[in-house]
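Sequence design from tokenized structure. All designs in this work follow the same two-part layout: the structure record, then the generated sequence. An example of the structure record is given first.
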């Protein structure tokens, strides 16, 4: 399980935009995995893919439970805080720019519909293959590709509206 902790946390964080919430959801994922481990069948895919499916299902449940709360939240409360990772080779100004860009991408991700957001996260941030995403989302591969494409287009549009673009 240790080997999967960071990946599961990253999926939860990218979906929620909140590190505390992502930590709580990650713990819930591992509890659910522990309780349902007997249902895992290697014939249907790898363990990591199965864990991603469990994570996705929990995130959908969480999204539905908190939907009413999000409607009443102000936009100020929705601003994501992104961790800055130390890098030996980066100057402080480069680090600050990357942190700012990461925050803007996270804010834009939260504006995507859940279907598009999860497809983009699984492909572009978690780098899963189309077949793995098809298994996780339980939709045809064509639908996966369509959601990824639409998600990327919508994400680019949102980022452009935010004034983020190629230098």
């Amino acid at each position: 399980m240790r080997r999967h902790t960071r990946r599961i946390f990253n999926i939860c964080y990218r979906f929620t935009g909140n590190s505390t919430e992502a930590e709580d959801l990650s713990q819930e994922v591992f509890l659910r995995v522990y309780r349902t481990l007997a249902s895992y069948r290697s014939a249907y895919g790898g363990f990591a893919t199965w864990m991603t499916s469990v994570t996705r299902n929990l995130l959908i449940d969480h999204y539905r439970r908190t939907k009413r709360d999000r409607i009443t939240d102000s936009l100020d409360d929705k601003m994501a805080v992104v961790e800055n990772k130390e890098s030996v080779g980066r100057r402080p100004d480069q680090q600050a720019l990357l942190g700012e860009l990461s925050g803007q991408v996270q804010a834009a991700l939260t504006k995507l519909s859940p279907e598009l957001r999860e497809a983009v996260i699984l492909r572009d941030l978690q780098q899963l293959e189309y077949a793995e995403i098809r298994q996780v989302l339980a939709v045809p591969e064509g639908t996966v590709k369509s959601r990824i494409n639409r998600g990327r287009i919508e994400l680019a549009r949102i980022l452009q509206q935010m004034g983020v673009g190629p230098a």
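Residues 71-85 have pLDDT under 50 and may be disordered. We note this feature because it recurs in several other targets discussed in the main text.
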